[in-house]
TrEMBL record:
Residues 12-169 form the N-acetyltransferase domain. It comes from the Bacteria. It holds the Pfam family Acetyltransf_3. This is GNAT family N-acetyltransferase.
Length: 179
């Protein structure tokens, strides 16, 4: 099993990443970051997280952070929730693994870390993921953890997404019949 933790970032780090300034982000980040973090592909996510942190600084403890591989001491991607639990106790998970680290179990490890946290948080009742219909690897991963389709939504960056949910209290391990 890949040993990761999600390292949350602050408003100043988000700002540096939005600006594409890796050196400034690294001067402020609790862990070193690599070029994908400051690249154009992830900039839209950092822009959203910066706006959230500016509006509510406490939201940074919930939103996208670094998937940190504890063994290799390497940042391998980004993961977190889209924000704190809403009034219905729903949190939505988002994650992306840097291309050079894919197919090594990091997405699974990040998902499990986020599911464990959701289960431990008294305000969280439901965990949601939204997946593009053409993203079969993410769908196959979510399916193993008891997520069920509840609808569709349009995302400004990703287009059409299928929405899946599961109760937060379920185990953060694959279902025996799915694993």
């Amino acid at each position: 099993m890949t040993d990761v933790r999600i390292v949350h970032l602050s408003e100043p780090v988000f700002r540096a990443l939005v600006d594409g300034d890796l050196a400034a982000a690294n001067a402020l980040s609790p862990v070193p970051l690599t070029p994908p973090f400051a690249g154009e592909e992830w900039r839209g996510v950092w822009r959203m997280r910066l706006a959230q942190a500016e509006e509510d600084p406490s939201s940074a403890a919930w939103t996208t952070g670094v998937i940190w591989d504890e063994e290799s001491r390497t940042p391998v991607g980004r993961a977190g929730y889209h924000g704190p639990p809403d009034e219905d106790g729903v949190v939505e998970i988002g994650y992306a693994v840097a291309p050079e680290h894919r197919r090594r179990g990091y997405a699974r490890a990040a998902l499990e870390a986020l599911l464990r946290r959701a289960a431990e948080e008294p305000l969280v009742r439901t965990v949601r993921v939204a997946i593009r219909p053409d993203n079969e690897p993410s769908y196959l991963l979510a399916d193993q953890y008891g997520f069920v389709e509840v609808g569709e939504q349009w995302d400004e960056e990703d287009g059409l997404e299928v929405v899946y949910e599961r109760p937060a209290h379920l185990p953060a391990t694959p279902s025996p019949d799915q694993g």
